[in-house]
Design brief:
There is one protein chain. The chain is an alpha+beta fold. The chain is 28% helix and 37% strand. Strand 4 and strand 5 form a beta hairpin. The chain has one domain: RelE-like (YaeB-like fold, 2-Layer Sandwich). The radius of gyration is 12 Å and the shape is globular. It has two helices and five strands, in the order βααββββ. The N and C termini lie far apart (38 Å).
Length: 86
């Protein structure tokens, strides 16, 4: 069982719902891995719409933007962005 629970915010859920089953399964596995080790060093950082720093983790062809809420032991998944493939 994950050390932290995870919740997916509306923007990330909208992205998740348009993906195929294999992509969804891969991302859910990545969410579970993040919940197991929420303090692991992220791949990068960015800012959300409110200017709050987000941790970013690369998962397959996607970047997951999240922030751990340590007091509530919850991982908030705010963004799922496709990696640029150039």
């Amino acid at each position: 069982m994950p050390r932290y629970g995870w919740v997916i915010e509306e923007n990330a859920a909208t992205t998740l719902l348009i993906l195929n089953d294999a992509e969804i399964a891969g991302l859910v596995a990545a969410f579970e891995e993040l919940a197991e080790s929420p303090t692991a060093t992220p791949d990068s950082y960015s800012l959300d719409a409110q200017g709050r720093p987000l941790a970013n983790r690369i998962a397959g062809k996607f970047v997951i933007g999240y922030w751990p809420e340590h007091r509530a032991r919850r991982l908030h998944i705010l963004r799922i962005d496709p990696l640029d493939s150039e």
